Please model this.
Amino acid sequence: MRDLLFLAHRIPYPPDKGDKIRSWNFLRHLAQRYRVHLGAFVDDASDFQHLAELQAICADVCLAPLNPLVARIASLRGLVQGVPLSLPYYRDARLMAWSRGVLAREPERVFVFSSPMAQYAEGPVAPGTRRIVDFVDVDSEKWREYAERKALPARLIYAREARALLAYERRIAAAFDASLFVSTAEAELFRQLAPEAASKVTHVDNGVDTAYFSPERTYDNPLPAGGPALVFTGQMDYWPNVDAVAFFAREVLPLIRAQQSDARFVIVGSRPTPEVRALGALPGVVVTGRVPDVRPYLAHAGAAVVPLRIARGVQNKLLEAMAMGRPEVTTTRAHEG
Model:
């Protein structure tokens, strides 16, 4: 079999959040056709227990632990180096040496998942090696949107990251053989931002396992007794999700409860920040933390709500709720993908 270097900013297994679902399905597909060498970061130590699942389909696996606090401090080197903060955030000497070793074997393909991982495959490569980067979303636009909603000095840092990351995204797209995005809208936006690479830009849609997320299955009701539940699912240390649930809990839910006094807002997702946990003290708000399966919560929801004010690409949480036949209420931003 032919060799392929697969680089991801987060371990692709288990596929329990949006980016990991996408990277896992790419990895699983490519492993049927290539001898895959997987390099990835692990930002949740419990995910190391899944190494065997990856070793079962990959020729070799190099996992680098990532401590978010340490990585944030390390990312400040980008201010001195004149590069996006995202690059030193995802820089690891051992993973870099391992990647260079794989590249020295002249793999036929390099698949990069998320733009900061492209630093491990930059520079000259063998003539027969083709490099593909899955940007997923236009991340530089996400940072620009962050800047619009943050106060000083964070606004200045995020605005700088947006500019620096866009310059890096353009450089990678020009150097690599193909650039992928998650939707036609994201691909078209990037073509406008990086016209020099427009001919090499395409998209691969996200999907959902409709046998797994099926309205035909039955589940015990995990919701506490009460009125109709509006359910949000997502990683709860991701700032757009934090912003979304805080906005809905503080500004929208009171209007709903004025008409339906027993309505509840149930926030389902792992690693809730202190701000998210504090929302549980508000009338009608329930914060579950990590759950083994989101499907019972969706199955018994009155509706799925996706009140994202910052959103890029396709929201898997929308696809999953749709597959389970639930009504959905979303912001325009969340629906665009």
Remarks:
- Residues 154-175 form the longest helix (22 residues).
